[in-house]
Design brief:
The complex is a heterodimer. Chain A is of the alpha+beta class. Chain A has five helices and three strands, in the order H-H-E-H-H-E-E-H. A three-stranded antiparallel β-sheet of chain A has the order 1-3-2. In chain A, strand 2 and strand 3 form a beta hairpin. In chain B, helix 1 packs across helix 2. The chains are: A alpha+beta, B alpha+beta.
């Protein structure tokens, strides 16, 4: 059975989130990405395939090397969905933090 | 930039995880959940009832400036372990989301920092997604109300 790949499934995995963070600042080759993980190469390769399949990553041929870079449009799709909910909680927790800073522990 | 509040919501699942680290000792973080007067301040809602004990119950209510109740939620507390965890149910009244189960874990990181993890379980994956999209709708409603206000002034 071929599972439908989508962005939310892709970002559910911590390694894949780490890969996205890595390529957020610069495009990297598969080898350079793999060098950041202790995981075996086939595992990293599988993660890259999933991220590419759901269009979070784009491949780009640079000479003989393939570079991976972030697809900002797709990233925005994730952010748009959860971001308002996250921001509500973030604001609440910021308020909680600032209120409690006025209290002292027993 | 590292976000302080994180939400993990895996596609197709009926649960979600909210995590947040605080620059507060775990005792104070817990107190913010335990003390009704403090809950009112940061949640921006009125606390009608908050029985912090096994099989206790709670109810929150928010009114608008005209005094109309715009939000009511209630639930039962299933477990209450000071400075460690609260397990409770959560139900928004007059809303189609059914009851959700919440596991709140309070963790000491250092003497001055702590971590809160909220694991919320919904009745179904689609109900969870509707709940996640709720802020969108609220945002839209607010925009619509504002539009209405402006339109009314033009009359």
């Amino acid at each position: 059975m071929n599972l439908r790949r989508d962005v939310f499934q892709a970002i559910a995995d911590p390694t894949r989130r780490a890969i996205l963070l890595l390529v957020a600042s610069q495009s990297l080759t598969a080898g350079a990405i793999a060098a950041n993980f202790d995981t075996a190469w086939p595992t990293v390769s599988k993660h890259l395939a999933i991220l590419t399949e759901c269009e979070l990553l784009k491949q780009e041929q640079q000479g003989r090397e393939v570079h991976y870079h972030l697809n900002p449009d797709k990233m925005k799709q994730i952010a748009d969905f959860i971001e308002p909910f996250r921001q509500i909680w973030d604001k609440r927790f910021n308020k909680l933090e600032s209120i409690m800073k006025n209290y002292k522990t027993k | 930039m590292e976000l302080k509040t994180k939400i993990d919501a895996e596609e197709g699942r009926a649960d979600l995880l909210i995590t947040r680290e605080f620059d507060l000792p775990v005792e104070l973080l817990f107190k913010a959940y335990e003390d009704a007067a403090i809950v009112e301040q940061w949640m921006g809602t009125k606390v009608i009832k908050l029985e912090n004990k096994k099989h206790g119950s709670w109810a929150f209510e928010t009114s608008n400036t005209e005094g109309q109740v715009v939000f009511r939620a209630n639930g039962t507390i299933h477990d209450f372990v000071p400075y460690q965890k609260i397990v409770r149910t959560f139900e928004m009244e007059n809303a189609p989301f059914d009851v959700q189960l919440e596991f709140m874990e309070f963790e000491k990181l250092t003497d001055d920092t702590s971590k809160l993890t909220i694991h919320s379980i919904y009745r179904s994956a689609s109900l969870r997604d509707q709940m996640l999209k709720l802020p969108f709708r609220q945002g839209l409603n607010m925009a619509h109300n504002r539009l209405q206000d402006i339109a009314d002034k033009l009359k």
